[in-house]
Amino acid sequence: MGEMALELNGVRARYGSVEVLHEVDLSLRRGSVLAVLGSNGAGKSTLLKVTAGLHPIASGSIRLDGRNVVGWSPDRLARRGVCLIPEGRGVFPHLTVRENLWMATHLGVTRKDAEAMAFERFARLGDRPNQLAGTLSGGEQQMLALARAVITKPSVLMVDELSMGLAPRLADSLYESVRQIAADGVSVLLVEQFARTVLGMADRAAIMVSGRVVIQGTPADVEAHLSSAYLGG
Ligand SMILES: Nc1ncnc2c1ncn2[C@@H]1O[C@H](COP(=O)(O)OP(=O)(O)OP(=O)(O)O)[C@@H](O)[C@H]1O
Ligand SMILES: [Mg+2]
């Protein structure tokens, strides 16, 4: 196997006749964290949807472990380990913490093991297994979303705006959990709006402006370009 878990080359995507991703190139090294920053409407969520098979690609290629997966269904991609935590958390608010975890066991993990995996990583969830997910704090809901993802043993985990609406300290602690997930061998693609602090934990980073990747490199490279990129420079 090559060192890249995921490679996008020349990816274009449209809504109707409007192209919103223009020749996007990105690579995600195995077991690493790539953070893609971009403002409102830059195309970050579309990028993740295309990669998860939830929105059609207009042209270009997406390689998973070196294999072109263009045209694969979301189910087939999920079985190959592609997992997306969508914008706004993706937990079932009217189910308990425990029931939310059970819903993620369809890929072969027992309920008992699912709970053990989740509660070992996120003790706060273990303290409240029977609480309705909708009544958890924002940070706890994100923990639950991450826990659900981990249970499916993903190879590529994509997270859409993990830090949205959370206090910076809480966001940092969730990023720390993401780092641990990556250390266990999961390749992670995070997209964020203005969360500059994500650069502190990412291995590589990129900036998207209006559907294009304008820079990709080390977090330090990207940090240096951040202000000018957002100002359109
Ligand atoms: N279902 C849709 N139909 C038409 N246009 C869409 C649709 N979804 C997104 N778009 C447009 O595509 C572009 C990219 O949107 P996208 O949601 O990918 O951006 P984003 O970077 O995730 O933004 P945000 O930070 O606000 O979540 C925007 O111009 C948006 O208006
Ligand atoms: Mg978005």
TrEMBL record:
Molecular function, one GO term: ATP binding
Q: Indicate the segments forming the ABC transporter domain, all copies.
A: 6-231
Which residues does UniProt call coiled coil? none
Q: Which SMART domains does this UniProt record tie to the protein? A: AAA (SM00382)
Keywords from the named record: Amino-acid transport, ATP-binding, Nucleotide-binding, Transport
GO terms (BP aspect): L-amino acid transport
Q: Which family does it belong to?
A: Belongs to the ABC transporter superfamily.
Protein name listed in UniProt:
Unannotated protein
Q: Upper lineage ranks?
A: unclassified sequences, metagenomes, ecological metagenomes
